Amino acid sequence: MDDYQLFLFRNFPGIKHYLPILSRHNFAIARSIMMPRALICAIVAIAAFLSSSNVSSLHIPTTTHRITRRAFLAAPVAIAGASAVLGPSPAEAIVYYDPMLYGDAELKVAVINRVRQKVRDAITKDPALGVELFSLGIADSLKYNAKTQEGGGDGSVTKLVDSAASKFAVKLSKDLQKSTQITLADVVALASAEAYETFGGLRVRVQIGRVGGDKAATAQNVQAVLSPSWDASVTQTFEGAGLGKRDVAALDAVRGGMAEVVKNMQMAKEDEAYVNEMGETDFIPKTSFGGASQIFGASLTPFDDKYLKAAVKGKKGVFADDNVRAAGEKMSIKSGKDGAIALERVLAVGKVYTGGKIGDLTGQ
């Protein structure tokens, strides 16, 4: 952090609430027009006077607007004046995204593909890991509290549970960081999406570039989402993050369907260990043509609607809620569409864009 940034942060603590516009790129612009501190203080005093007498509000760019060079030139003064007059205001959200974190589109695609391939390889070897990774990504995002706009997918969910999925995500992140730039938050989100696809779901668009955020004092408790079965408290967590009951129905249907696939695979594995009198394993390949995956059936069996139908009929778990059950009665997650839409919505909550890397400002 340079002298200009230190001056603003030390003299105007409230400025930390406007981190999305204080990117490294924008500070570089500010340095090019460096003003004497005395002049800054004088302008701030004038801004404070005008704000108290004639100005009702200051416009701070929202998360969906890009900040122009001209707009930024006035930003330090406007922000400092707002902090001095209005005092600290709540942060808009907690998870910051830098769209350019991984460079150009080609580099970004390469990073995504590396994570997805590592995750898929691990899941095909241990399908149970896939169910855990799917829930882990959902839980990380559902820490977001829509009322306070704190929490969200920052990767910290790995500290809340001592599971195989949590350990896998942390290790994968560290291994990849030896040769490429990747954040734990992005690994958790991408792993969840890849787990869904590995079990037969559609490709889910995941916005990467999560660079962390402030510590959330009022983030939601997601322990229920991390449990092997979901109940009414999970529905409340979804709603607390600003999501609907259709999202709950779709993702629990997928989670339960994936768990059923794992259960059936484990039962089949126990049965296939038959050895005949000659000491040979009784194995009949699916086909004698093609590569190993075609012959030995390495891909996982896709999830279906059996769990969903049984849960809706028996009013089990989240489907004990009338509205969740009504949503479940009208959907089929076998095609993958409903699950993909719901998962994409969950992984995107609490999103705030920043024009550059803000690690120096957030302490990440």
From TrEMBL:
<protein>
    <recommendedName>
        <fullName>Plant heme peroxidase family profile domain-containing protein</fullName>
    </recommendedName>
</protein>
<dbReference type="GO" id="GO:0020037">
    <property type="term" value="F:heme binding"/>
</dbReference>
<feature type="domain" description="Plant heme peroxidase family profile">
    <location>
        <begin position="115"/>
        <end position="256"/>
    </location>
</feature>
<dbReference type="GO" id="GO:0006979">
    <property type="term" value="P:response to oxidative stress"/>
</dbReference>
<dbReference type="InterPro" id="IPR010255">
    <property type="entry name" value="Haem_peroxidase_sf"/>
</dbReference>
<comment type="similarity">
    <text>Belongs to the peroxidase family.</text>
</comment>
<dbReference type="GO" id="GO:0004601">
    <property type="term" value="F:peroxidase activity"/>
</dbReference>
<dbReference type="InterPro" id="IPR002016">
    <property type="entry name" value="Haem_peroxidase"/>
</dbReference>
<dbReference type="Pfam" id="PF00141">
    <property type="entry name" value="peroxidase"/>
</dbReference>
